[in-house]
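Sample pair:
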Amino acid sequence: MNDETNDLIQAGALNWANWHESQLVAHGLRCTRSETLWRCWEPGGIIYLGAITLKPGDPYALYVETERLVEARKPGGFVMADCWMNLDLSKYGFETTDAEPWHISPPVESPNVSSPPELRIEQVSTLSALREFEEASLKGFEMPDSATSAPFQIHAEASIEDLKLRCYMGRVDGDVVSVSMAYVSDGIVGVYGVATLPEYRRQGYAQALTRAAVQSGLGLPALLQPTPMAESMYERMGFYEIGRLQMWRLPGS
């Protein structure tokens, strides 16, 4: 891995951690970080990680920090992202999943968002809109009804006060059909939570919402972690793989 790629992945890891912290602190949860590891000491919503590596630093120091977090969060489990794939957390009871790619898009300078003519894209700026956004996100990711029992359990009300966070939703005939998020920090735009309701897929809505998120930071590159289902769409938009990361899951009781 060359220095430029390493710097981009490090910016992506920092952005990812900052996005998590913005959301979780808004829920009143305790998050801390060292030079090499960001972590949340309490359980967050279903979509949030418990720890993210921030630098490809000394593995021993990362193991010590991880062990402390595991002890603090017992008997609960969590997911940890190893952004450089240089850790083996199996000795702490973690289970590994398939490696996931980092994808980056070059800076997008045009402010025009191309979208299907029937799609109206708007940025979330009110609590009522945030509630619609959250409901559409849960449906788009096909999460079970048990994932949340009340509004704002995933996206806290205070989160819309963070000016680095931009949440977008697309409407067709007044109904929210697709959503995306952008977090602008560390010299990049982190793109998160792109989802389309199942009955509205394959109509260009996810691509339009992704482009809206990317253009939140004009002149900045955008970074995301695509699902296998969406990888080809992002490649058509100009994203390309720059590295891979490893997710580690610690089962809870």
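The chain has two domains: 3-102+243-250, 120-240.
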